[in-house]
Amino acid sequence: MNCVFCAIADGQLPSHIIHEDEHFLVLLDIFPLRPSHLLVVARGHAPFLADLPAAPREALLALAERMAKALYRSDPSVLGINLLLNDGPVANQHVPHLHLHLIPRRVGDLPALCWRILTRFLPFGRARIEVRLAREAERLRAALAEG
C-alpha cells in the first residue's frame, strides 16, 4: 500500500505528532491552511468515513473536541475552528485515508486563508514552514498536557 498516512502511522515517515491513541494520530498538516492546522488521522487504513470501524468512528468527535480545546488554550488569537472531513476524491480528499482537519481561525484571516488555499502545495518556503511546525507542535503538546 502506498499511503502517506499509513507510512506515518508505521513510523516510516516523519511528522509532528501532537497526540496518539489506539485509534488516531493527531499531527500538524505539512501544507497548513492556517497556523496550527491539525489532522486527526485514523491509525487503520480507511479511505471513507463509512470504512472506519465503529469504535474509532464513535471516538472521532470527542478527540476533535479535546484537540480544539488545546488549540484555544495554545493561542488566544484562535477564536474559531473549522472542522473539515473530505470524504472521497470528489470531495477534494487528496490522501485516500480518513482524516479530519481542524483549521484554527482568527479574526481577519480570510484573505490569508484564501491565498493559502491557492498556493498550498507550492514548494517555496518549506524550510521556514518546517521550523514553524516544530514550534507549533511544542506549543500544542504543552496545551494538551494542561487540559
Description:
The chain is an alpha+beta fold and 147 residues long. The protein contains four helices and five strands. The chain has helices spanning 4-9, 54-74, 110-119, 126-146, and strands at residues 17-20, 24-28, 38-42, 80-84, 99-105. A five-stranded antiparallel β-sheet has the order 1-2-3-5-4. The model has no long low-confidence stretch (mean pLDDT 94).
SSE blueprint and pairings:
Blueprint lengths: L3 H6 L7 E4 L3 E5 L9 E5 L11 H21 L5 E5 L14 E7 L4 H10 L6 H21 L1
Antiparallel strand pairs: 1-2, 2-3, 3-5, 4-5
Helix pairs in contact: 2-4
Helix and strand content put the structural class at: alpha+beta
| Mean pLDDT across residues | 94
Give start-end ranges of low-pLDDT stretches: none
Q: Sheet bearing the most strands, described?
A: 5 strands, antiparallel
Cα Rg: 15 Å
Shape: globular
- Helical percentage: 25-40%
Strand order of the largest sheet: 1-2-3-5-4
Tell me the number of helical segments per DSSP (H or I, 4 or more residues long).
4
N-to-C CA distance: 37 Å
The H-and-E topology, N to C, reads as HEEEHEEHH
**How much of the sequence is in beta strands?**
15-25%
Can you count the beta strands? Answer: 5
